[in-house]
Amino acid sequence: MSSEGPLACPRCATKYSLEERFCSECGMPLVYAGRGEQKPITDAHGRARKVKPQYTEGELVRVAGGHNQAEAEMIQGMLLEEGIPSILRRTRGFDVPDFLAAGPRDIMVPEAAYEPARRMLLDADIVSNGGAPDALPGIGSPARLLIGVLIAVGGAALLVWLLYQATG
Ligand SMILES: [Zn+2]
User: 48 C-alpha to center of ligand 1: Å?
Assistant: First the structure.
């Protein structure tokens, strides 16, 4: 897979084909190694320089979703400002042809960048805790407490009713 190609890892210089997005050794986003194409080299190098190496460790995990390619790319840009590399994946289960910009995207980041990415996106109101019940354990507590009180009150009322039936 990592023989020859127009892409290269900015850290270890391994060459990759266009299908690859990250170096399989370092996890670094690949850049154009191209000959003479000054513009893509400059842009890609600029992007690669922003990436913090400590955010490139680990498996790719889904940190957020975009409703379409444009929104997902906007989120990618925000992550990159924090030094977080990311890739986009078409969200599974949406049968939109690959060449269309429509359809939701998953934004994947290396595991090491998940927490800072999540925090940053939460601050920016890009993601919510709605789908992640274990993210903020405190939030569910008042509701659970209320349900507990209702069950306790209901149980007491039932007991009173039963006693009333027995004595009456
Ligand atoms: Zn590499």
Answer: 12
Report CA(15)–ligand 1 centroid distance (Å). Answer: 9
Q: pTM of the entire structure?
A: 0.50
- At residue 23, what are phi and psi to the nearest 5 degrees? -70, 130
Q: Phi/psi of residue 166, each to 5°?
A: -70, -40
pLDDT single digits (tens) 57-89: 899 999 999 988 889 999 999 999 889 999 988
- 24 C-alpha to ligand 1 centroid (Å): 7
Rounded distance, CA 68 to CA 78, Å? Answer: 16
> Residue 111 Cα, ligand 1 centroid: separation in angstroms?
17
